[in-house]
């Protein structure tokens, strides 16, 4: 089933290196104009998949279609995609202008037209006046922009980006994230972005495919991935998560009762799990969905009492480790620092009351 | 003495040792140019006066110039072929996972440590068994074997430092393999190619042992020099000639090293990320 409208369609693609299977029977569709991210830890097959789309690696099985055309017989230099490499691969023997104009030579355009296109690209990546610099005279962020300009000047149908922000420091990375997103909207090209940084993926993407072991664990929008992960692996890979063992106790009038280790009995909407009565499930809740109260009076009646074991001060919020009865691992609680924090560690050892909204509980399969 | 970091602290005995080492190495060689300007046919102190007579005489000898041209054509041929082969070998070794890769490199490098006289005798036996007459071609063949390790040793580090994603980027931007080689690979390794060319040229031009075993009636320049040593009257001219060869060889080796380093600096800073 190939979606006609898909810009990239990956059909049952596999890739083996010797006995190691980097990608296994993987299928996905990427819509035109989409900012699509492949997210996963190193070795999950995301870069291999990207390199197969670019044509640098052959496919051991399956087929990749770009704009409806099968690609297995098409060499990289004839594919309608361009790539921004992890190390940018700026040609060291050429200056910025010649780097950007590199791919234009094939097109046989008149010199004046080429110059105009290069100037336009230098403006687009906010580097006018840098045309005569050499690669070794550029900073990391500037190299990244040159690599982008060099790829975008050919007006590819798809731009592939292999962890392009990994080598930049935090501030520059955040700035480049914004610029990438702006650029992608203005040129309207499909972006396929590879990263291991979940925050970056959430910030940039229209859709994210979370990968592990050469397979897609979940393909969803950033908000859905964060709020409704479908498996424990995805839940723990994206952001922090508290997990609890639980058991389905009863199903009654559209509600389902769960006995949750450490939290007691929780009452959830029927639709939150399909597990039968008596079955074990896994309950997850994000640290910021647990609300910490410093006194029992301020807390709701049903609040769970615990003790602060350690505090990590993060500026706008603090990360608390809270020990509760009936649970071996401490709970991670993210607490907004709305009041003045004189000494973040002063609360250690003090009692704390936790409350939460049952709707924030996510029910996962127990694996 | 106390300023400067631990690693940079000067060490007087080592400095003296280094100076002595260089003196012992180069003073004997410096006697050649010294006596080549001496107005006596005998190599002995005291010097008897300054003359350029021996250099003037050099330009009147046809046999010498014939030998010079022989050496020049052999050295040019050898340096071109070995550098081309070196480029192919270095690229293959660094690019592909070849079975027995380190063994291949070792075998290429082996002529560096095999005594020249053994290689020379072996080749002479082989060539005379095959019935091939000795000529400048057989000398060229011998020099190819001697010079190839120098070429590969110069080019391997260049290709090892070569970032493969450069070629992928070129392919990605629409260039097929052949034009990728000329637009990206070759310009990046070019300093190494020049260095290899200069180095192999110098080695071949100065080579004696192979030429001794494998040359026919046309002598190379080192062979000619050797043949002149029998005549005491010719000795000052030999000194003059040797001095000139020495100077040109030094210049070429320095040039080769300088060009090689020039490119190396470029690629190192190229990987820098701020």
Characteristics of this structure?
heterodimer, A: 367 residues, alpha+beta, Rossmann fold, six-stranded mixed sheet, B: MetI-like fold, 2 domains
Short description:
The complex is a heterodimer of chains A (367) and B (274). With 367 residues, chain A is α+β, with helices and mostly antiparallel strands.
By CATH, the topology of the largest domain in chain A is Rossmann fold
Low-confidence stretches of chain A: none
Radius of gyration of chain B: 23 Å
Share of β-strand residues of chain B: under 5%
CATH top level of the largest domain in chain B? Mainly Alpha
Report the end-to-end length of chain A measured between terminal Cα atoms. Answer: 31 Å
| Largest protein interface, residues of each chain | A-B, 32 and 25 residues
* Structure class of chain A: alpha+beta
The CA-CA distance between the termini of chain B, in Å, is 35 Å
Name given to the CATH homologous superfamily of the largest domain in chain B: MetI-like
* Tally of strands of chain A: 20
Quickly name the level 1 CATH class of the largest domain in chain A: Alpha Beta
Q: What is the CATH-assigned architecture of the largest domain in chain B?
A: Orthogonal Bundle
Helix content of chain A: 10-25%
Give the oligomeric state of the chains in this entry, treating copies of one chain as homo and distinct chains as hetero: heterodimer
CATH homolog superfamily of the largest domain in chain A: P-loop containing nucleotide triphosphate hydrolases
Main sheet: strands, sense, barrel of chain A: 6 strands, mixed
């Amino acid at each position: 089933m190939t979606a006609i409208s898909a810009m990239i369609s990956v059909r049952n693609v596999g890739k083996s290196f010797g006995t190691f299977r980097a990608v296994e029977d993987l299928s996905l569709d990427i819509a035109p104009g989409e900012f699509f991210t492949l997210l996963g830890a190193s070795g999950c097959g995301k870069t291999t998949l990207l390199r197969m789309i670019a044509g640098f690696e052959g496919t051991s099985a399956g087929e990749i279609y770009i704009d409806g055309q099968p690609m297995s017989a098409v060499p990289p230099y004839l594919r309608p995609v361009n790539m921004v490499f992890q190390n940018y691969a700026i040609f060291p023997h050429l200056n910025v202008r010649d780097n950007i104009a590199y791919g234009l030579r094939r097109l046989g355009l008149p010199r004046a037209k080429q110059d105009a296109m290069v100037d336009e690209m230098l403006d687009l990546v906010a580097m006018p006046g840098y045309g005569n610099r050499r690669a070794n005279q550029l900073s990391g962020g500037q190299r990244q922009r040159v690599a982008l300009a060099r790829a975008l000047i050919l007006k590819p149908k798809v731009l592939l980006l292999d962890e392009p922000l990994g080598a930049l420091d935090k501030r520059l990375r955040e700035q480049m994230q914004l610029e990438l997103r702006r650029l992608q909207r203005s040129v309207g090209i499909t972006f396929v972005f590879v990263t291991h940084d979940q925050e970056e993926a959430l910030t940039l993407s229209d859709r994210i495919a979370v990968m592990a072991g050469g397979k897609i664990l979940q393909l969803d929008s950033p908000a859905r991935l964060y709020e409704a992960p479908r498996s424990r692996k995805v839940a723990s890979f994206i952001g922090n998560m508290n997990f609890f063992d639980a058991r389905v106790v009863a199903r009654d009038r559209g509600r389902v009762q769960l006995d949750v280790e450490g939290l007691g009995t929780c009452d959830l909407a029927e639709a939150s799990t399909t597990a039968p009565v008596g079955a074990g499930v896994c309950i997850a809740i994000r640290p910021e969905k647990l609300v910490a109260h410093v006194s029992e009076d301020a807390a709701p009646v049903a609040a769970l009492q615990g003790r602060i074991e350690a505090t990590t001060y993060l500026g706008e919020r603090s990360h608390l480790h809270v020990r509760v009865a009936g649970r071996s691992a401490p709970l991670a609680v993210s607490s907004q620092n709305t009041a003045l924090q004189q000494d973040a560690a002063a609360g250690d050892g003090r009692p704390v009351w936790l409350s939460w909204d049952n709707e924030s509980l996510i029910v996962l399969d127990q694996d | 003495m106390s300023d400067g970091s631990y690693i940079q602290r000067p060490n007087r005995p080592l400095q003296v040792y280094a100076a002595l080492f260089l003196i012992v190495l180069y003073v004997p060689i410096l006697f050649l140019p010294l006596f080549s300007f001496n107005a006596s046919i005998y190599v002995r102190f005291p010097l008897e006066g300054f003359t350029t007579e021996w250099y003037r005489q050099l330009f009147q000898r046809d046999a010498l110039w014939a030998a010079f041209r022989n050496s020049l054509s052999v050295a040019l041929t050898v340096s071109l072929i070995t550098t081309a082969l070196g480029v192919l070998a270095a690229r293959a070794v660094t690019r592909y996972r070849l079975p027995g890769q380190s063994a291949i490199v070792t075998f290429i490098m082996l002529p560096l440590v095999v005594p020249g006289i053994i290689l020379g005798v072996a080749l002479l036996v082989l060539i005379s068994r095959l019935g091939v007459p000795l000529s400048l071609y057989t000398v060229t063949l011998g020099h190819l074997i001697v010079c190839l390790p120098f070429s590969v040793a110069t080019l391997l580090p260049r290709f090892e430092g070569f970032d493969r994603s450069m070629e992928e980027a070129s392919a990605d931007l629409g260039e097929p393999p052949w034009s990728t080689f000329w637009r990206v690979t070759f310009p990046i390794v070019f300093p190494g190619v020049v260095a290899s060319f200069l180095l192999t040229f110098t080695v071949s031009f100065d080579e004696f042992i192979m030429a001794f075993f494998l040359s026919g009636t046309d002598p190379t320049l080192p062979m000619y020099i050797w043949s002149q040593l029998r005549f005491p009257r010719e000795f000052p001219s030999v000194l003059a000639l040797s001095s000139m060869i020495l100077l040109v060889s030094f210049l070429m080796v320095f040039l080769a090293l300088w060009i090689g380093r020039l490119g190396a600096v470029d690629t190192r800073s190229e990987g820098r990320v701020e």
